[in-house]
Structures are given as structure tokens and as C-alpha cells.
Amino acid sequence: MVSFSKVVCFLAASLNLKYSLALPLEHNSELPHAIKSRQQQYFAITGVTDGGVQPRLEIRTLASTKPEMWNLFLLAMERFKAMDQTTRESYYQIAGIHGAPYSAWDRVSGSGNWGYCPHGSNIFGPWHKPYIVLFEQVLQQKAKEIANALPAGTNKDKYVAAANELRLPYWDWAIDPAGGTVMPASMSTKTISVTYPNGTTATIQNPLYTYNFNPLRAADFPDPNNNMPPFDEWKTTLRQPSSSTASAVSNDAALEKELKGNLNYNRAQLYKLFTQTQKYQTFSNKASGGSIGNLESLHDNIHSAFGSGHMGWPPAAAFDPAFWLHHCNVDRMLALWQALYPSTYVESASQKGPTYTIKKGSSQNANSNLTPFHRDTAGSFFTSANSRGITNFGYTYPELVGATNDTLKAKINALYGSTVQGIITKRADGSSTAPRDYVAKVSMPWIGLEGTFSVGLFLGDFNHDPKAWAKDPNFLGAQTSMSNPYTPDNDVVITNSVVLTQALAKKHQSGELESLDEETVVAYLAKNLHWEVQRQGVIVPKTDVPDFKVVVQSIEIKPAESASDFPVWVGGWSTHSAVTDSAN
């Protein structure tokens, strides 16, 4: 095996491209006055303007079908991450917009120990759109630098075309991995093979696995009350860290266990969000007061799977490369939902928590500035209204290419609805009444336990150790409340629905549940439905959680009549108080 250093030297000598093909350090070499001059203008977020409108691809699809683009993506990510951390467009500075180090980006000043990101807000979804576009724009520029530095010829033309069409891929954590892992190997292995544009191959540190702080500045991760993991000591991003010491390492198996254990719940919850009509305000965020569930809480569940690692805490989450692929998927889900329900969007709402630039209690609406994101070099801001579309940013998603309402519904059914539809069909078989959908509605405070915590639900006996929940055969799923421990208290109560129908059908198939008639099901749930609260792997007494409540309800459901149709809830909810009145 040729060493990586020799490969780099060979490429540099043969192509006279010292920094274009490998992992070159890209520390800014401009003179101070040149940097100052360049940064007097605001950074204009335009999206990728090359190659027309191109679809963002699922990461496994990109890796398996677009070899040149895939290799450019990996090399561009590495070049992006190697930039000087003090440069405005560096990976470090852009990641820092979300939370720590709580400093101004692009000269948009603010204050407080929280980032620009508006969690629990009506602008949660729209704010992340220009944020992801900014990341994508710089990433694609790095790919162009690599391709444009090649010698003229057919090979260069091929890579320039690939760079022009490159868009940030998304990681769909809700699809059935068909025997594989929920997190693809391309994101979870420490090293990865790349093929350079001249055909030379090498094994490099996987740019999608971690981010190495260079240098780590402890002051960038303030934690005066010692409420967070030691981000001020970890020199690289970690996932499910093995300990809370400086020597901790990532536990990739534990992360996959959490993702796999929550897969059915997350997919069922996503399908409910797509298929059951609600206003944008209640669909979009966890502070909206909705009861079906919301996109932000579902997004929180993925962050929570990373445990006490960087992704599990808002102040540090964006430094993990997985953040960008995860949020690209959240943007996709928002885009698909908006295509299904185009008549509802951001409405004015009071902010339940502060950000670096938004005061708690202030009112934000579709025309409020999405700070710190500028549309042009003069300093005009994006708003939810002027950033509502996606094609104007140069991207779309595969499901939206040439889509009609029917084709979009069919694609959503194929991706996420097969399990739910099958359960509904089986639920109806042999029953003298109309099929019913059963859910446990979990209400929990957003700010209640000085940081992120979750509620795990089980149908049957279970292991009380939170580290064992995800592999427990009776585990239904966990609902997370993700928060910055320094966010001021608020009165937000988050409500989400844990779907019970699939688990009940399986219990019936195994013979454990005698019948699927309502009386039998309710009696079974009263005896077998359990829940626990945990924070950082430690059980928390339920009485210590303010406003915590679990309510079991059911509703009649009309199954979809075709592949391009959605199931529909019919009538009103029935509350089964006997379930939660029993001892848990």
C-alpha cells in the first residue's frame, strides 16, 4: 500500500497542484489589510449558481451512483474543514453560528450564552434553510477549486461538470436500511477510500466522521455551572462518548444501537406528520402546542441518539459533520411537507426562548430577519418569506422532480408508509369494528432538567438501564427534549405522539394480545404500557419532571385506498384514562 503522504507528493509533483487534490491545509495566507478589505462586505448567500437546479441526493445514492461527484464531495469536505478557524467562511466559523462560541458572524452582533439558532420557534425551519445553503455554497466552492486546478482536457471537463452539479447530500435516518445500518458506513468509519481525479487512490481520515479542532479553544465552550460534557477538553467531535473525561472516544456501536432502536418510532412519527393535516405552525416546531407531533421534536430524537457527544447538545452540535447531513434531511422533510400543504406557512408568534440576536418574548413572523444570513453584500437579510422556495437556491430533492401531489404521496408511502399501512390492514382483519390507531401522547417540558432529556416507552417488561433501552424487545421509542442548559426557563410543554398500533399488532400476532377489540387492547395497555425518564444515561424520577404527562388515545382511521393516497383519521379522539390511571 502506497502511503498517503507519498500519494500527495506524487500528485503535487505530477500535476503541479500543491493544494488542489488532497487534504492540503488551507490556512489563509492573505496579508491582514487584504483580509480586512475583503471582509468589509457582507457574505452573500446565493446558493450554488452553477449547473442549474440539481437534486440533493441521499448520501448512499450519491456514493453508489456518482463516483466522481462522491470523491469530489469527500475531498471538498476535507479542504473545507482544513481552513483556518479564524476565517469567516471556515468550517469552524460556520459551525459556530449554531451555538458556541457565542460570537458575531458576518458582523451581526448579539449577546448571551446561546447561538443564533431559534429552537422552539416558528422560524426554526426557515432559519436552517439559508444556514444549510451557506454550508453547501462554500463546500461546492471547494469542489470547484479542486476541479478547476486540473490540467485542461477531458478529465478536467468531467470533474468541473461534477463540481457544478454537486449539492450537499442528505442522510435519511427514517428509511428501512434493508439489513444495513441506519447510519451508513460512509459516515461511521474512521477512514475512507478516495480516488483522486488522476485515478490515484488513497485511504484518508473520513471527513464525515469527525471534526478536529485546530486548535481547541477552551474559552469557546463556556460552561460556568458545569452542566455540559467537557467540550472544552475534547479536541475532536465525539459520538456517544465512552466517558466524560478528556480521554473519551466515540462509541459507534452505541450510536447505531440508538438509531436502530428508535427507527420504527421515528419512521412512524414522520409518516404521521406527512399524512395528518395540521397548520404549519404546529407541524414545524416544538413550542407550537400541537398534539400530533412536530418536525423539530423528531429532529431532536436524532440529536439525542448521539448521547453526550457534540451532536447531543445544541451549543456544540454543528461541529459534527453528521449535523449537516441530518439537517439537510430535515430541510428535505420540510420541503416535501410544504409541497403537500402549500397554503399554510409561518405566522407571527412570541418567542419562548432567546437566541444570540432574538429576545425572549419578542414577536417573529414571516418577514422577520433570519440572522445572521445576508442575501447580498450590502447586508440585506433573508426572511422566512423571501427564502420560502428551494429552486431559487439551486437545489431540489429527488421526490420533487416533476412531482404531482399524487406522485409525491406515492413516494412518501413507498419510503415510510409500508410498515404503517401493513399494521392498519392487519388491525382491521378479523375485527367487527373500524380499524383504530392507538397513540401515547407524551407531554414534557422543553426546559426542565438543565439540558437534554428523554422519555422511553415500553410495551411489556423492560430493562430499566437507559443504555439497554434501544435493544430491549419491548422498547417503543424515546421522545427527546433537547435544550441548552443555559436557556432561561419558559412555560413550553412539548407534546408528541408515540404510535402504538404497530406494536399492538405484533403482540396480537404473537398471541400475547388475545384480541384487537378496543376493550381488550385498553386492558392490555393498562397492564403493559410503561415509561421512564432519563438524562445522560441516568433514570430521573418522573415526579421530578414538571408538567410531565402521558395520555393514551385512539381514533378511527380510514386506510389509504391507493398507493397515491394517505390514511386519514376519522372523527374524534377517544381518551383511555384507564391506561394511565393504573400504576406505571
Fourth CATH level, the homologous superfamily of one domain = Di-copper center containing domain from catechol oxidase
Which strand order does the major sheet show?
12-9-15-16
How far is the N terminus from the C terminus?
59 Å
> Class of one domain, according to the CATH hierarchy?
Mainly Alpha
Strand content: 5-15%
What's the gyration radius in Å?
24 Å
Helix proportion: 25-40%
CATH architecture of one domain: Orthogonal Bundle
Protein name: tyrosinase
InterPro entries: Di-copper_centre_dom_sf (IPR008922), Tyrosinase/Hemocyanin (IPR050316), Tyrosinase_C (IPR041640), Tyrosinase_Cu-bd (IPR002227)
Cofactor: Cu(2+)
Catalytic activity: L-tyrosine + O2 = L-dopaquinone + H2O; 2 L-dopa + O2 = 2 L-dopaquinone + 2 H2O
Walk me through the structure.
It is a single chain. Strand 6 (369-374) and strand 7 form a beta hairpin. The protein is globular. With 584 residues, it is of the alpha+beta class. Among the domains are: 34-168 and 343-403, Di-copper center containing domain from catechol oxidase (di-copper center containing domain from catechol oxidase); 405-581, Hemocyanin, Chain: A, domain 2 (Sandwich), CATH 2.60.310. The chain has helices at 4-15, 32-38, 59-65, 67-81, 91-95, 124-148, 154-165, 185-188, 252-261, 263-275, 280-284, 295-305, 322-340, 405-428, 501-509, 518-528, 577-581, and strands spanning 54-55, 191-195, 201-205, 349-350, 363-364, 369-374, 381-383, 395-396, 436-445, 453-459, 475-481, 493-499, 529-535, 538-540, 549-558, 568-575.
